[in-house]
Amino acid sequence: MEISKSNNECSSPSAGEEFKDMMKGVTKFLMMVIFLGTIILWIMMPTVTYRNKWLPYMRIKFGASTYFGATGTTLFMYMFPMMAVACLGCVYLHFNKRKSLHPIDRERKGVWSALRRPMLVKGPLGIVSVTEIMFLAMFVALLLWIFITYLRNNFATITPQSAAAHGQTLWQAKLDSAALRIGLIGNICLAFLFLPVARGSSLLPAVGLTSESSIKYHIWLGHMVMTIFTVHGLCYIICWASMHELSQMITWETEDISNLAGEIALLAGLAMWATTYPPIRRRFFEVFFYTHYLYIVFMLFFVLHVGISFSFIAFPGFYIFMVDRFLRFLQSRDNIRLLSARILPSNTIELTFSKNPRLVYSPTSIMFVNIPSVSKLQWHPFTITSSSKLEPEKLSVVIKSEGKWSTKLYQTLSSSDQIDRLAVSVEGPYGPASTDFLRHEALVMVSGGSGITPFISVIRDLIATSQNQKYKIPKITLICAFKNSSEICMLDLVLPLSGLQTELSDINIKIEVFITREKEAGSDATTEKIKTLWFKPSISDQSISSILGPNSWLWLGAILSSSFLIFMIIIGIITRYYIYPIDHNTNKIYSWTSKTIIYILVISVSIMATSSAAMLWNKRKYGNVENKQVQNVDVPSSTSSPVSWGYNSLREIESSPQESLVQCTNLHFGERPNLKKLLLDVEGSSVGVLVCGPKKMRQEVAKLCSSGLAENLHFESISFSW
After folding, report:
1. pLDDT digits over 583-616, tens only?
2. In whole angstroms, what is the distance from residue 345 CA to residue 515 CA?
3. What does the pLDDT average to over 88-96?
4. What is its EC class (predicted)?
């Protein structure tokens, strides 16, 4: 997440702002040029020109060195450019101030809004925009181009005589060649597979994406990778079986491709792939979760299978993921100061944590939470409901009791008033680098059940923004669908628990609440209490903060660049004084397996050393301030308060922080929201529409926004489901 101190914006850009804009423009241009250069390399890779002209030249330039040997070719051609893009992305995000659009800017993105409209609503891909379809089509076209060009050029060189020289018939030789090329295009997919799940990576936010909204790309790529690699393996098995050489399956060549390592990697991938089947994932989520740790086995044996030289084509994304994963591990070692737990009658809990005031996050951000007393291994993502503008020293998440983990947590907290402390670890927050909801004249948020939680953060953020007279806040319509009237109490979370001076009268908001399974308010709606538990601090507790301090993007760039530089220096020394005297750059004498293990160990040590050093430096500089902040928090006694949303109490509230919220709320019992009417009735030249809830609700809203019935409806491409 971006950490920054709030500054007053000036009407005219200062010299500092002009410098930042210049740096943003330069870094973005360099990122684009380098990335397009890498794409051109992939396009040219299967061609005769690349094989006969480009590759020999680059082998002379990069592969003849006594410091890197043959590995230097792929290291500098494919690994180095993507690492440079990631580092430049960190610089870009550091200078990219979180800005909101002025009303005058609302009409400038007409083409971009059209490209973001949903194109496909139902189907295996889910809700997909025009832009996503375009990029998916271009990616598939790239894969087909590489595969077809490889086959055409290679099949032209296969003759009955050349096949016989290798003990094969013509069709066996062609099948062998096709199997190899299928594996090559699988590597292209693998190069992107880990980028969507690198939560703290600079590449996604630099192009306006988040890890949360990009999970579907990881799913698409995962299916493509496993389909391609499975076909790759089956083709070789068929070829070996036809040649009566199935013993090839258990060979482990130390100076060439290791077939056994490839099969182990494939089996690990198939195990992960099988647990992604929706019924298995829904019913046995823990099986899916723990099985996915086989990615370590998959990647290790993939590299052992193809050798370190060739794996550098697909390795940059995994390298970035390794850095992100180790930083998450370091952050998860801290015990986080839990201030309070607000227990609602609807089997819902709001946990409020202490937060470093320097930590700034955008609405709709998420955070992963681990509570050892519930489960030592499980991490669950939850939407942040607080606003860093409104509550600079606190952060809240809402947890609905639905699965085993959340149910156990709810029972633990709701059954006792004597819990003094609850040990908690977190990873995050993760979210968009910025949000531009202010570009719309009106904002419609449609939620089902606990899907209201991301919109609570949006409303709180807009309340805070309304204090700045420079911005015109869009009209807000919140449409909530609940099963039972007891769930209405989730609206109590719209305003923070603390006694902050927050007034909904500062914004124009209308809330339409639909209770679908009751004709009138339940008898318990006016009698149940909201219980608040306050926890005592421990000397080991810390407030939530960025693992890399205020300048987190610069530190991430420093880790990526320095770890890669240290890796190259160490490998250069090892190659020059140990491997080269044995192999002499032939790549045929020194064991591939040993070389691969050395590279993996050096990469791991470089990442761990630089990441740990950066974390310790920032903790030493800012840790004392955070600890004082945690220890100085007063702990009130646990309290209970009546629910504000009983049917009879709607007219009884005379003076409370919830009064204005109740006044702008309409309750509808025994009916579902007529989304078509509600959306089409919203006035404004630009209406942003967000939805979070059941699959059918999301599809219905996306269909309405893409139907053309109202050109002013703009579907916000935000995902809230991991």
Report:
1. 877 777 888 899 999 999 999 999 999 999 999 9
2. 16
3. 90
4. oxidoreductase
Is there a single domain that holds both residue 271 and residue 378? no
β-partners of residue 481 are: 448, 514
Counted residue by residue, the chain has a size of 722
Question: How far apart are the C-alpha atoms of 367 and 282, rounded to whole Å?
Answer: 21
Residue 150 lies in a domain: no
429: preceding bond cis by omega (within 30 degrees): yes
Contact 250, 259 (CB under 8 A): yes
Rounded Cα distance, 242 and 172, in Å? 8
Helix (H) or strand (E) holding 690: strand 687-692
Instruction: Name the token pair of 662.
Output: 């109740």
The per-residue pLDDT of the chain, averaged, comes to 84
Start-to-end Cα distance in the chain: 18
112 lies in a domain?
A: no
Burial 87-96 (b: 16+ CB within 10 A, else e): bbbbbbbbbb
Same domain, 358 and 452: yes
Round to whole Å and give the CA distance between 65 and 584. Answer: 10
In a domain, 159, yes or no: no
As given in the structure block, the two tokens for residue 333 are: 């070692």
Token duo for residue 437: 């909801």
Handedness of CA 550, 554, 560, 563 (dihedral sign): negative
Q: Are strands 348-354 and 394-400 parallel, antiparallel or unpaired?
A: antiparallel
Cα 98 from Cα 698, distance rounded (Å): 28
Asked whether residue 120 is domain-assigned, the answer is no
Q: Return d(Cα 98, Cα 436) in angstroms, integer.
A: 9
CATH number of the domain that residue 533 is part of: 3.40.50.80
Q: What are the structure tokens assigned to 568, written together?
A: 């190259």
| Block residue for tokens 């201030």 | 339
Count of domains forming the chain: 2
Q: What pLDDT does 100 receive?
A: 43
d(C-alpha 492, C-alpha 344), whole Å: 9
Residue 469 sits in the same domain as residue 407: yes
pLDDT in tens, 431-455: 876 677 888 888 999 988 888 888 9
Residue 465: domain span? 338-521+528-545+674-717
